[in-house]
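Private note to self, pasted from the team thread so I don't lose it. Backbone tokens:
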């Protein structure tokens, strides 16, 4: 019963979010790392700049740092998401590690968002930088909400109770998290020659 419900929910959410298009689901990766092999990234995007004029070289490096940090944190969180989906218990050490990854993810998103909102970016970069920020924030929030959903409903499903699931806030994010938006971001990265390992672009 539980596996059937989980499979149905994942398919429903992914189809709603992607609206028939592919998003970064990491299907090309061979296996999820074990928690023992997880290394928490020691670099995220940070900047103390306020009301400054940002040149093109700096904004390109900033976007790369932000997206690379997102990718590393996302990879690091996957083994912990697997534990949630499989309804297993975290050890105290695993919980501390997962909490640190989540905090770094929030800091990375917040730092980049503040940076692009409170500084003047070069022409052609403001709109696309905001698109990148909104997309990654919405994607991270979606994955977090799905994890919370599984965690909260696990007991009911194991008892054979089909829980009521409110996925409204997740579906609302489909305007931001979908294949079309990701393609626009990747086209922009290609146009500006911004090299990042996000979205499986590492060669």
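Design output:
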């Amino acid at each position: 019963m539980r596996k059937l419900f989980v499979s149905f929910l994942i398919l429903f959410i992914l189809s709603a979010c992607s609206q028939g298009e592919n998003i970064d689901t990491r299907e090309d990766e061979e296996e999820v790392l074990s928690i023992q092999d997880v290394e928490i990234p020691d670099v995220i995007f940070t900047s103390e700049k306020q009301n400054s004029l940002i040149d093109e070289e700096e904004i390109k490096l900033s976007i790369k740092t932000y997206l690379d940090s997102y990718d590393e944190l996302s990879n690091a969180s996957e083994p912990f998401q697997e534990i949630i989906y499989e309804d297993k218990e975290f050890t105290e050490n695993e919980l501390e590690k997962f909490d640190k990854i989540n905090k770094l993810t929030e800091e990375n998103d917040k730092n980049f968002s503040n940076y692009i909102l409170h500084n003047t970016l070069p022409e052609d970069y403001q709109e696309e930088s905001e698109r990148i920020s909104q997309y990654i924030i919405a994607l991270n929030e979606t994955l977090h909400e799905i994890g919370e959903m599984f965690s909260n409903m696990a007991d009911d499903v194991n008892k054979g109770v089909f829980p009521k699931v409110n996925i409204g806030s997740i579906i609302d994010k489909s305007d931001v998290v979908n294949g079309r938006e990701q393609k626009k971001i990747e086209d922009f990265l290609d146009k500006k020659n911004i090299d990042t390992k996000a979205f499986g672009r590492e060669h």
